[in-house]
Specification:
- The structure is a single chain.
- The chain is of the alpha+beta class.
- The chain contains seven helices and 19 strands.
- It has two domains: 74-201, no CATH class; 209-333, no CATH class.
- 22% of the residues lie in helices and 28% in strands.
- Strands 4, 5, 6, 9, 10, 11 and 12 form a seven-stranded antiparallel beta sheet that branches.
């Protein structure tokens, strides 16, 4: 039987498209060698990317463990953003349907769905947990159609909406990443929080894999998050400072700008740094695979973490790289929302 083209979409995740099938390979590690769990050699495996999940206690180098498990907060949506909670059409009483917004879903078959608005009272952030999936921070929310309801997180808000608008559901609420959407304007397409999470964590991963180059009197040095640099330590010692930061003014919020705009922003960054009497060296960031064009940057000596983050925010950067003598470089979020 053909589906009614005017029927509203039901709740739950979007239809699953045919994708790449995966296989779980149980392994054990003996003297640094990866084997099948029963001791046999690994099967021949073509080039691919996967996950190796091991006890944290098995990571012997403290710096490696810190890099793989470090938590970081990165912005997702600013305060007062409106997000839309998708509901299941068959569970909504006819009397409540006029209180819902009917909007076309971005996923095929692009049905219209019923949504309830949610207003974020504070900035919504992603909590990165090393290599684990990112989680949402808890922020208070308002529901314009339920003005007497107060909720302290997006998950709780979804549950309270579901209880009110889907009274016949056996279990209220659901996966906020798959059923809550944002759109930049009333005419913009919907984007699920799951897609936003993938985009934000994808950008963060690209930052982590970027090589940050600086031209110094000691020659060219390369800085990578999670790694230390003897050459950089030598420069810090020579200039009698302990801290450093690597900052760019190019492409604020990771949006490509024209060469003219970027060059003008870089000159302003250099002026701000020089006015503070700080020592700096020209450099450029080189992203993975050469997909993103190199960004002119400055390695700034003697800049504290707080002042470095403020400088990054001043020039609209999502993140900067900071460090101290004899310590690994680390990526630091500037708390700038990509939607500002």
């Amino acid at each position: 039987m053909a589906k009614d083209p005017d029927a509203l979409a039901e709740n739950g995740p979007p239809p699953v498209e045919e994708g790449v099938k995966t296989v779980r390979v149980p392994v054990r590690i003996v003297d640094g060698e990866v084997q099948l769990a029963w001791g046999a050699a690994l099967p021949k495996i073509a080039d691919c990317i996967g996950d190796l999940i091991v006890p944290a206690s098995a990571i012997q180098d403290a710096a490696d463990l810190a890099m793989l498990s470090k938590e970081e907060l990165i912005p997702l949506l600013p305060a007062k953003s409106i997000v839309l909670c998708k509901l299941g059409a068959r569970h909504i009483p006819p009397a409540l349907l006029p209180k819902c917004k009917l909007v076309t879903l971005p996923e095929a078959p692009h049905q219209r769905a019923a949504f309830v608005e949610i207003v974020l009272e504070e900035d919504l952030e992603l909590r990165l947990r090393g290599t684990k999936p990112a989680l949402l921070t808890s922020v208070p929310c308002k529901i314009p159609t339920l003005p007497d309801v107060n909720a302290s997180s997006l998950n709780e808000t979804y549950r309270r909406i579901s209880e009110a608008f889907e009274p016949t559901r056996r279990s209220a609420g659901g996966n906020v990443f798959l059923n809550v959407y944002h759109r930049a304007s009333d005419t913009a397409p919907l984007v699920s929080l799951n897609t936003l999470r993938d985009e934000r964590t994808g950008v963060w991963d690209a930052y982590l894999r970027t090589t940050f180059v600086a031209e110094t009197p000691n020659g060219q040095i390369e800085i990578r998050p999670g790694s230390s640099s003897v050459a950089l330590d030598s420069i810090l010692l020579k200039n009698r400072v302990a801290e450093w930061a690597y900052v760019t003014a190019y492409n604020p919020s990771s949006r490509l700008m024209s060469d003219e705009i970027n060059k003008r922003a870089h000159e302003e960054l250099r002026r701000v740094v020089n006015d503070r009497g700080l020592i700096c060296f020209e450099g450029h960031g080189v992203g993975p695979g050469g997909v993103w064009p190199p960004e002119a940057s400055l390695l700034v000596l003697g800049l504290s973490v707080d002042h470095a983050r403020a400088l990054g925010r001043q020039f609209g950067q999502l993140a900067i790289v900071v460090g101290r003598a004899r310590e690994s470089a680390r990526l630091l979020a500037c708390k700038i929302s990509p939607f500002h």
